[in-house]
Amino acid sequence: MPSILQCMDCSQQYPVDKIIYNCEICGGLLDVQHDMDKLRHTITRETFDRRLGTLDAPYNSGVWRYKELVNPDVPDGLIVSRPEGNTNLYAVPKLAEWAGVAKLYLKHEGENPTGSFKDRGMTGGVTQARVLGVDRVACASTGNTSASLAAYAAWAGIEGIVFFQNKQIAFGKLAQAIAYGATAIQINADFDRNLALVREVAGALGIYVLNSINPFRLEGQKTIIIEAIQQLRWQVPDWIVCPGGNLGNSSAFGKALHELYEIGLIDRLPRLAIIQAEGASPLFNSFQRGFDRLEPIHAETIATAIKIGNPVSYPKAVRTIRWSDGVVEQVSDQEIMDAKALIDRQGIGCEPASACSLIGVRKLVDKGVIKSSETVVGILTGHILKDADSVIQYHNGTLENIHAQYPNHLHQSEASIEALSKILESRQPTHA
Asked: Is residue 143 part of a domain?
């Protein structure tokens, strides 16, 4: 049986070659549903292990290595891949000690081609665009989605269109969208309004939307978790911790874990923790009320990648938390930037939103939710150079309302041995 689109609320089904983002019956979000009975009898851990390290497309991609769980029916010749994935899983004992857990791993999605996890989703979405025969794709973006869409659209030879808000866009992300040739439009509106606009414009002009409301995006993003568990030799961690903005990642993670368990590749589900910034925490607020409803907010946070007040994937994220007996936590901008400084000091580096994973672990340990004896995988979503300005401002002490706890000051010196020696002799080595 080929894969289908299915409403997560009323189970109405649609063919995968239909351009549709919500159920026509009830308005619910759609899942790509694969033939799980077939996969249960044909896919084993060895299926994916045999493909590790191959130079042959499409399995040299850390997404398409798991093709049967992403888009099993697509012809290899239509796949649009850079390739992406194959990102490192770092054991970080110093950060584990700081966070208070026995073992901590950081899965660094900033090592993808355009520097964020979005590439995993975009290879799935742009591949489906090619299957459908469309020649224009669009998204609203806080930055990373635009960079990824622009790159993959260019690679596929189709037009990319991105809607930005007109302030607080990290230049590292805006520069990528422009450099890759996308039609980039800044609009006097926040992300949530821009997402509504892109959907209206796309419907009127026949453009394919590639925000996370597109279910094929989430199929690609599932592979972050599949790959992490494969890197752990199929041993499931106790917790997976990730930042939460529009909630596409956490939604995809829940689906990945559910499917891995259903076909027998893992024998239990880890618990999932979604960490939001205090100024952009509608999921956390709902979690505190038992997920009674989503109340959109006006989002404000230094972590621009998750500065979203009306997350489109809210229902799927709630499903993930319920499936995994998970939790939602919030952290301050101060905590985010201090945690980022510690990750950066390890020589790994990340964008501000990524640091929610580390500080989220520590906060949940302090609350007794995560036990000190447990193993945790944290997700780093983007590269350090995605928001270089925040790095310099943090360490120079010029970020508004942020007092750097772990600064590395930029020194100024005259061009003399005496002046340089004075700085170097007074500077003591620092360790995170």
From this structure: no
Residue span of the structural domain in which 6 resides: 1-33
Q: What is the pLDDT of residues 254-263, one digit of tens each?
A: 999 999 999 9
pLDDT-derived band at 429 (thresholds 50, 70, 90) equals low
- Residue 222 in contact with residue 257, Cβ under 8 Å? no
Lowest mean pLDDT among 121-130, 142-151, 187-196: 187-196
Q: Clarify whether residues 20 and 74 are in a common domain.
A: no
Tokens matching residue 154: 């260019």
Instruction: Report the DSSP beta bridge partners of residue 159.
Output: 136
- Cα separation, 392 vs 409, in Å, equals 9
Q: What is the reported pLDDT for 108?
A: 98
Contacts of 236 (CB under 8 A, 6+ apart): 229, 266, 267, 268, 269, 270
pTM value surpassing 0.85: yes
- Residue pair 113/389 in contact (Cβ under 8 Å)? The answer is no
Q: What is d(CA 302, CA 216) in angstroms, rounded to the nearest whole number? A: 29
Distance CA 7, CA 71 (A): 18
In total, the chain counts a number of residues equal to 432
In a domain, 206, yes or no: no
pLDDT category, 189, cuts 50, 70, 90? Answer: confident
State which amino acid sits at residue 8. Answer: M
Both 26 and 54 in a single domain? Answer: no
Question: Residue 368 has which token pair?
Answer: 């007794």
pLDDT attached to residue 168: 67
Say if strands 271-277 and 159-165 run parallel, antiparallel, or are unpaired. unpaired
| Model pLDDT for residues 371-396, shown as the tens digit of each residue | 999 999 999 999 999 989 999 999 99
- Residues 44/54, Cβ–Cβ less than 8 Å: no
| Domain assignment present for 126 | no
